[in-house]
Specification:
The chain is an alpha/beta fold. The protein is built from 19 helices and 13 strands. α6 packs across α8 and α12 packs across α17. The longest helix is centred in the C-terminal third of the chain and has 21 residues. It is globular, with a radius of gyration of 22 Å. Bound molecules: uridine-5'-diphosphate-2-deoxy-2-fluoro-alpha-D-glucose.
C-alpha cells in the first residue's frame, strides 16, 4: 500500500467509553516514542480525546483527530442508561472512523495509512484496514484480561454447551455454578462469572452482538495485543498463541508505556504518608460504577466497624448518600476524595487492601502495587476478574452474595488485613507484582513484544 520511501502512518482507532481509550493511548505514546520515523493518528471522539491526560505532552509524531460520536444535538447523558451513548456512537461507525482516517491522511501531507491499530471492540477495523490495501495489517488491542477475551472467542461453543439437551438460556439459572473447565485456562470459572449477553440476559443487545462479532473477527487480525503479561494466566495465553497469527501480551501497559504521573490534586498521597504501613483501605469503583445508595451506606458502615483507616474515591454528588454524620465521625481516620491518582495510591506502602469493582485497569494497578483486593464486581468482565482474583490467583476475597453488607465488609477487611490468610494473599500479590515488573524490563516478554509490534508497524 505504502509508496516506497513514504513515511509509515499508523491509524489508532479508539473505543471512547469507560477506561478503554487510556491504555490504547498509553500504547500509542509508547510506540510513537519507540518509532519516531512513523506518523501516528489517534482517532477518537472529541469528548474522549479531551480526557486523555497526556494529549499535550504526547510525542510530536502522534496527532489526535476527533470523530463524530453520533449524539443527536439535544443529547443529554443519563448515567442510568450509559449504553445510550455507546449505541449512538456505534450507529455512526465505521463511517466516522473512515472519515477520521481520511482527515488524518490529508493533514499528514498525504501519507497513506500503512497499519491500523484498534480497540478490539471495533471489530470492523479489519475491514477498514483491508479497504486501505491488502498489505495493511490490523492489530487489535484487548484492554481487559485474557480470560475475559476467551469468553468472547468461545461464545458459540459456550452457547452450544449450555443449551445442549436443554430448553435454552432460561436453564442457565439452574446451572450458574457449572464450571467452564472445558475451555483452556478457565477451570474454576463458572457460568455465573460470564458477562451478560454471552449465555444469559439479552443475547441480542447492541453490546452482546458487538462482542460476539468481535470474537469471530479477531482471529483474522495480523496481531492481537493484550494488556496482560506472560505468567499471569499461562494456559489462556498458550491457547491465544495457537489461535492468533501473533499474540503480543504488552502488560501492564501502565508500566511498559507509563503515562505522565497524575497530580495529587486532592492530597491523597500526603494523607497516606501519615498512615501506618499496610493498614489503609483504598476504595474505588472505576469511572462508570457507583454502588446503589443502600449498598454505599452498608459499605460506609462496614468501614466504620472495621476501625481501619481508609481512602475512598467517590464523586462528590454521591457524598449525600453516605450515612448521616459518617464523614464527621471518621474524619480522623478517613479521607473521601472526588478523585485520586489511583495507580500511585496503590503503590503507596500504606495501602493494605483495595475494595474494587474489578475493572481490568484497577486489577492491574493493584497487582503492580502488590495489594490484595476485596471484590464487588458489577458487570461485563468484572465478574470473571473477581473470580480470578479470589479463586485462581488467591489474592483477594469476593462477597458471598456479591453485594456489600456492613458485616461482610468488616469481615472481608479483617481477613485481608489481620489474618494469616490475608498475609498469604499479600505474598501472592507481591509475587505476581515481581513477575509483572520482570516482563516490562528490557528482555522481558512484554518489552520484547513491544519491539515486535514496532517492527510490524515500521515495515508494513
Ligand atoms: C471499564 O472500566 P472502568 O473505567 O470502570 O475501570 P478500570 O478499568 O478499573 O479503570 C479505571 C481507571 O481510572 C483510574 C484508575 C484506572 O486506571 O486508576 N482512576 C483514577 O485514577 N482515580 C480515581 O479516583 C478513579 C479511577 C469497564 F467498566 C471494566 O469492566 C473494564 O475491565 C475496563 C477495561 O476494559 O473498562
Amino acid at each position: 500500500n505504502r509508496v516506497k520511501g513514504q513515511q509509515p502512518h499508523v491509524a489508532v482507532l479508539a473505543f471512547p467509553f469507560g477506561t478503554h481509550a487510556a491504555p490504547l493511548h498509553n500504547l500509542a505514546c509508547g510506540l510513537a516514542s519507540a518509532a519516531p520515523h512513523v506518523a501516528f493518528s489517534f482517532v477518537n471522539s472529541a469528548k474522549s480525546n479531551a480526557t486523555l491526560a497526556a494529549v499535550d505532552s504526547a510525542p510530536p509524531n502522534l496527532k489526535f483527530y476527533d470523530v463524530d460520536d453520533g449524539a443527536p444535538a439535544d443529547f443529554a447523558f443519563d448515567p442510568r442508561s450509559p449504553e445510550e451513548e455507546i449505541d449512538n456512537f456505534m450507529r455512526v461507525t465505521p463511517g466516522n472512523f473512515r472519515k477520521g482516517m481520511e482527515d488524518a491522511v490529508r493533514r499528514t501531507g498525504g501519507a497513506t495509512i500503512s497499519c491500523v491499530i484498534s480497540d478490539c471492540f471495533l471489530w470492523f477495523a479489519g475491514d477498514l484496514a483491508a479497504e486501505l490495501g491488502a498489505a495493511v495489517p490490523w492489530v487489535g488491542l484487548w484492554t481487559g484480561g485474557s480470560r475475559s477475551l476467551s469468553v468472547h472467542l468461545y461464545t458459540d461453543l459456550l452457547r452450544e454447551t449450555v443449551s445442549a439437551g436443554e430448553k435454552g438460556a432460561s436453564d442457565v439459572e439452574s446451572k450458574v455454578d457449572d464450571e467452564l473447565g472445558f475451555l483452556p485456562g478457565m477451570a474454576g470459572m463458572r457460568l455465573c462469572d460470564l458477562p451478560e449477553g454471552v449465555v444469559s440476559g439479552n443475547l441480542n443487545s447492541v453490546f452482546a452482538r458487538l462482542l460476539h462479532r468481535m470474537g469471530l473477527e479477531l482471529p483474522r487480525a495480523s496481531a492481537l495485543a493484550i494488556n496482560t503479561f506472560e505468567g499471569l494466566d499461562p494456559a489462556v495465553l498458550i491457547d491465544f498463541h495457537a489461535k492468533f497469527k501473533r499474540c503480543l501480551p504488552l502488560g501492564p501497559l501502565n508500566l511498559l508505556c507509563p503515562p505522565p504521573s497524575r497530580p495529587d490534586s486532592t492530597g491523597c498521597l500526603e494523607w497516606l504518608d501519615r498512615q501506618a504501613h499496610g493498614e489503609a483501605v483504598y476504595i474505588g469503583f472505576g469511572t462508570l460504577m457507583t454502588p446503589p445508595s443502600a449498598e454505599l451506606a452498608e459499605l460506609a458502615e462496614g468501614l466504620e466497624a472495621s476501625g481501619a483507616p481508609f481512602l475512598w474515591s467517590l464523586k462528590k454528588k454521591f457524598w449525600p448518600l453516605l450515612p448521616a454524620g459518617f464523614l464527621a465521625r471518621t474524619a480522623d481516620r478517613g479521607l473521601v476524595a472526588t478523585w485520586t491518582p489511583q495507580a500511585r495510591v496503590l503503590e503507596h506502602p500504606a495501602v493494605g487492601v483495595f475494595v474494587t469493582h474489578c475493572g481490568w485497569n484497577s486489577v492491574l494497578e493493584s497487582l503492580v502495587g502488590g495489594v490484595p483486593m476485596v471484590c464487588r464486581p458489577f458487570l461485563g468482565d468484572q465478574h470473571i476478574n473477581s473470580r480470578s482474583i479470589s479463586h485462581t490467583w488467591k489474592i483477594g476475597v469476593a462477597f458471598p452474595e456479591k453485594t456489600m453488607t456492613k458485616d461482610e465488609v468488616a469481615k472481608a477487611l479483617h481477613v485481608v488485613l489481620r489474618t494469616a490468610e490475608g498475609k498469604k494473599m499479600k505474598e501472592r500479590a507481591c509475587a505476581l507484582r515481581a513477575v509483572a515488573l520482570q516482563q516490562v524490563q528490557p528482555g522481558g516478554s512484554s518489552s520484547e513484544n513491544l519491539r515486535a509490534l514496532v517492527a510490524i508497524i515500521s515495515t508494513s
